Amino acid sequence: MFDAAIFSHIALGIVQGLTEFLPISSSGHLILAHKILGSIGESDLAFDALLHFATATAIVVYFWRDISSLIIAAIGIPKKVLARQSLFGNEEIVLALIAGTIPAVILGLLLEDIMATTFRNPLLVAGTLVFGSVIMFIAEKHSGYLSRFTVIANGWKRGLIIGLFQSLALIPGTSRSGMTISAGMLFGMSRGESARFGFLLGVPLLLGAGAKKALDLGLGEISGYMIAGTIASFVVALLVIHLLLKFLQNNTLYVFIIYRLVLAVGIVATVLLTV
User: Which domain, by its residues, includes 144?
Assistant: First the structure.
């Protein structure tokens, strides 16, 4: 017997896994998917957060060696700071990741209510899809532009600026990966390097959002349907991370820009036709 509920949850999980790391906006696609598949109940937002938790776990699994090295480097930072020694390599990356996480955490907490209501508007998603496309186009055309500003070009300051770009993705349709990849490119990083940094930068936010919403929902209210969708999201996300890094080695962001613009037009047309 066909179970529409489990189909909807798995479909949403696949959508999240496919779109979280592609620069096309996962939250925007989830909002649209909810419109197409229908609401799965008052726990829509909580389930979305669990899907983010699944994709964060995929990052941890895929980049486990990198993350292990960063953890080891982080442990040694306080000692070097107290001894007034310079930080290098992974130590600088750790500080950049910490600095980059701060803007989205602060803005996310301040804008939580708006994000759950006003920001989940299809027309707003269409507008931010276009806005994000413009940022990505600028990054392709002017790669390395921000590197000329030496005061912010390296270390934690560069991480902070990339984090500010990431915070734009609190508005559905913008795309967290699209913004972090674009910011990295504007600092002269390769597309692959930018994506890798963006993946690592997203771990605290995605895990934090998942944990908070899971606690708000209550573990007793997490259904088997949610678990099925979460597993689907995790598996698909692992595959997408690998394929995207391969793709970015020899390709530009233009295919994603075109997709975003076409999707934006489609959203506007759909809204107008259903008024």
Answer: 4-273
